[in-house]
Design goal:
Keywords: Hydrolase. By secondary structure, this protein is an alpha+beta fold. Helices cover 26% and strands 45% of the residues. A hairpin with a 3-residue loop joins strand 2 and strand 3.
Length: 92
């Protein structure tokens, strides 16, 4: 099965609400590789890699976020899969 990679920039109330930890749980449950990290200006970057359907599910989850989050916008860029990307981690 062909893998895809999506880079999502998520804005709104997405820091201080367990967004990264919740994203990691969702991604691991979907069997995805990648990472999630906080960015300046109260944004979160999430990189998801795996089967397109699973990546789409992760992106749909990001549009809602965990309880307490208020997602205003999710911008997605699609890239070729990176064979070096393994596991799903929180980056600091």
């Amino acid at each position: 099965m062909t893998e895809v990679r999506a880079v999502a920039l998520i804005s709104g109330r997405v820091q201080g609400v367990w967004f990264r930890a919740s994203t990691q749980r969702q991604a691991r449950a979907l069997g995805l590789a990648g990472y999630v990290r906080n960015l300046p200006l109260r944004k979160v970057e999430a990189v998801f890699q795996g089967p397109r359907e699973a990546v789409e599910q992760a992106l749909a989850w990001c549009r809602q976020g965990p309880p307490g989050a208020e997602v205003r916008e999710v911008r997605v860029s699609w890239l070729d899969a990176d064979p070096a990307l393994k596991g799903f981690e929180i980056r600091y």
